Amino acid sequence: MSRDGSAGGTGRDADAARAEVLRRVRLAVGTQPPGVGVSRDYRGVGARPADDPVGLFVERLTDYRASAYRCGADEVGETIAGILGEHGRTRICVPHGLPARWTAPGWQVVGGDAPPDPVALDAFDGVVSGCALAIALTGTIVLDSGPGQGWRAVTLVPDYHLVVVRADQIVPAVPDAIARLDATRPMTWISGPSATSDIEFDRVEGVHGPRTLDVLVVAEGR
Amino acid sequence: MALFVTCLVDGLVPRVGAATVAVLERLGLDVAVPRRQTCCGQLHVNSGYPDQALALVRNHVAAFADAEAIVVASGSCVAAIRHQHVELARAAGDEGLAAAAAAVAARTYELSEFLVDVCGVLDVGAWFPHRVTLHQACHALRLLRTGDRARRLLDRVEGIELVDLPDADSCCGFGGTFALKNASVSAAMLADKLRAVDATGATVVTAGDASCLTHLGGGLSRAAAGARTVHLAEILAATRDRPWAPPGAPPHPRRRP
Amino acid sequence: MTVFLGLPTASPGVGNLHAATPFPTAAAEALRDDQLRRNLSHATRTIRGRRLQTVAELDDWEQLRAAGAAIKDDVLDHLDRYLLQLEQAVTARGGTVHWARDAAEANAIVVDLVRQAGATEVVKVKSMVTAEIGLNEALARGGIGAVETDLAELIVQLGRDHPSHILVPAIHRNRREIRDIFRREMVGVDPALGDEPAELVEAARAHLRQRFLTARVAVSGANFAIAETGTLAVVESEGNGRMCLTLPRTLITVMGIEKVLPSWRDLEVFLQLLPRSSTAERMNPYTSMWTGAVEGQEFHLVLLDNGRTATLADPAGRAALRCIRCSACLNVCPVYERTGGHAYGSVYPGPIGAVLTPQLTGVADHPHLPFASTLCGACFDACPVAIDIPRMLVHLRAQAVAAGARQRRLPTSEAAAMSVLGWLMSSPGRWSAALRALWLGRVLGRRTGWIRRLPPPMSAWTRSRDAPRPPRRPFRARGRRR
């Protein structure tokens, strides 16, 4: 096999290291014929249907001590305002592309073309975002930097995160999510608020990521 | 059918061999004990001396070549026969031996497997009026997947009072030469196991493997604990007519004809 | 350093893999620490029960496990191809790929990159591989500070301690000990800091907050790297990973070459296997994924060998490279539960460490580790990629014995005993005679049927347990059957 161009590192040492590691690998395994393919008889795409994906998603979310709210499609804006009021969160930032009817005056859109300044982000006490999809079985929300999700830092630095999930964005299980996502987009998968098990293997919520995660599930068809 | 006694039972606890024979004969089986048998070679393999085990595999396969079914009252020896013999033969490039070893392995059963799966028996007519707790020997549990067979056999023993052993499936710390090479870790595991046994208030702790029982028994003796070890085969062999008696006790009056 | 390993390709790994004290000695020492044993027992018990529950929720666990093993085996069989594919994909998306033959080379690459970025401090995501290569020490030698941001790593770093668990490096510490370390070492910490985990977590948050916001360079490991797309994935819980991976303008990721996965789809298997096996969660709180240089960052990927190709060269040991560092095997291991991780001497402790470390360094460097197990099999059952650790331990024991024999002229007493025993057992006549001779032992233990003291090497047995008194006659000498 020939060297296919743009390997990193610089100089002769880097080339030598690359060649040497590859040589060792080939010596160790020989030249193997291409794999015959992996048997995937586990439950794949569509093989774990949920009777009530929204209900399951909400149950799993709350199991991880996130809070879940539900509302109709025409009540999103007021519901968000209500939740934020409940938490006393006033300095709110939002990523680009969040539907205008979800937002309120005074909120700041951050992270346009240039990366947002982390210190500036730290001045907000909450962020409201959408998501790419959500996984019912694991209570997971996936952000893929699309519209209404923005730079990954935007949904990380503020201590409070409210995510809006449309019911039709909820897929049953992990394989369904993988099948729908574009691998090359920067992604964050979120399952509950930040947590740690580092002290005596006991789970404690709230470390460096947003210590409070609220999720608003918006019903379909209204 | 043939009995593989195992080196440990043969040399140190022959009463377990006698008990195994007694249970099988009570079920109407004709039990042969091939003279040629010695050891399965597990000790050598697991200690890092596979080359020396090869001669033992050869001997074992020859000793049991004609046996229809081979019963062993030790899960770890069965695991060695099933999982190590063929591999050793193959590593030595002896395909003939590998095939013969595979055939012997396919006809080899751990005692509780043989009774439950082959004979289809749960009640072997035993009587054992003692408070008993069962330690799940690792190799039977995880290498042979004997599951709850021993438990189900014990459940049918008349007069027995079975009590659950906390952490029954955690290792007793024997592990062959582990008990010597890492004696302090082994002793710590043993101490925890003995504490668990003590908590049950049982007077007898049983298992399907003489090696674990030798370890536990040595610990119980050193601790001068109230409980003692009795092999599963000994419990199943005990009847009202020929009750179990602690080794060293005066022999019971009615001797074999 | 040249060590003959009998394998032409073997280039041993270096770094924090080498035990200064043989396992039996270190283990005996650890066992004297009652607090350590209580901490370990509490923590491993907590996680064991929860793991079984979470795993039982998936009725296709065994199928996922088989698929995980098969995918990893495919990776190992075609590692050169997948590495090249990964390199191409990462490069195509603006990342830079570096190759390192060993720990020293990887460290040098990282130190250079940090200097080029003009930074004197880096924030770090917890990673086994950077612990393996001793990156923090190398950075320090280069005048660069490394701040561990994972809570447990922070506890270890502040306590000037060593990690003792793959997932929870400070598992050997309880809350009171952690409070004491924080009170002593954290600048500006509340001197009245309590020992509630929530309070300790809050202290760590405050301690690291400004560093995250102002850091210019981050260093991470990787849980997975997708050859097909060039996507890197890091799973974590606290958000320190997200902070490091997204805020600094330069990101350097070091990964062992075995971490590559062929396709994006493969993550559907591993993102189910890993969280349930490690923290017993359906999903870990955060997973970050990025492909090449994203969001204005500069991205460098360092691919590390450091003994992995030597491991790859042994078909019977290769499967150790399937390991996804979940640490389930540690949590179920009765030996680990009593000794803790330090006794293993390597950054990779427990059952997987006992097979991985000797393979990465060459078994002659760690002849004791393959014997640090009773072969109880709990690790194999718990492993989400079905690494048959007990079988591998037995395989490595033979290598350790052979390596020992090569180094010595005279056989050890154990080897001599095994020879004699093998010679006796290979002949039914000799074996019967030997067993009959056991009755000589009956001079001992006459009173109770148990022997209280035996000479070496059996004295190791009778130090803490009695030995059975031999019977009058062995079973087969009873002469009742053909």
Automatic annotation (TrEMBL), chain C:
GO MF, one annotated term: 4 iron, 4 sulfur cluster binding
User: Keywords on this record?
Assistant: 4Fe-4S, Electron transport, Iron, Iron-sulfur, Metal-binding, Repeat, Transport
> Which stretches of sequence are listed as region Disordered?
460-482
Q: Where is the LUD domain?
A: 85-293
**Classification via Pfam families:** Fer4_8 (PF13183), LUD_dom (PF02589)
| Feature: compositional bias, Basic residues | 470-482
Task: Extract one GO BP annotation from the record.
Answer: lactate metabolic process
Domain 4Fe-4S ferredoxin-type, residue spans: 320-387
- What domain of life does the native source organism fall in? Bacteria
- Protein name, per record: Lactate utilization protein
Q: Which organism is it from?
A: Micromonospora carbonacea
